[in-house]
Known about the structure:
Layout: E1 5-8, E2 15-20, E3 23-28, H1 41-54, E4 60-65, H2 83-86, H3 90-109, E5 115-119, E6 123-124, H4 126-133, E7 136-139, E8 143-146, H5 149-158, E9 164-166, E10 169-171, H6 173-183, E11 185-186
Parallel strand pairs: 3-4, 4-5, 5-7, 6-8
Antiparallel strand pairs: 1-2, 2-3, 8-11, 9-10
Amino acid sequence: MAEGRIEIDTGTSELLCEIRDRVALITLNRPEARNALSDHLTPALRRMIKQCGDDPNVGALLITGAGAAFCAGGDVKGMGCNSNKADMAFEDRVADLRTKQRTFTGALVAVRKPTIAALPGPAAGAGMALALSCDIRIAGGRLRYVRTIKSALHAQEQRARRPFRCGDTMLGAARSAENLSRNNQLHPVVFPHLYY
Length: 196
């Protein structure tokens, strides 16, 4: 362990977490799948967000993705593999998915500390919802959001009044939505000190 750095066991290799200078650096670690949210990654991420949010030694949370993407959303290759879900009625599966999405983004919204999404690349579907649930989003390069209404609605509702950082300008929710809908991309904002 390096001085000033504490590694946290997340219970899976798909999620890394360490504390540096009172900042919890949470890294989605599935670069081969563009950090798609799996059945192992999602609950671990939810736990780490809550654990770091409750830790008095943590002053802020920074969430990023390993490799060239932030998060590709839900891992569609693993969807439907749970035999318990296959027996559920369609309406029950939709209700279950909505509950999971609410608790996923809700865990982040409930944190009473600054939350930052450092996006090294694309954020799609639930990955976009994750980024939108943070207080601040920082693009590390030419970033593209891939919008899906259902995955982003809850995050947008919960963070509707939060500003969006774009360069040196803090944009309100209305302007942020306008910018995203106009050309679906953001200009890079480089903060190399956030990438340890």
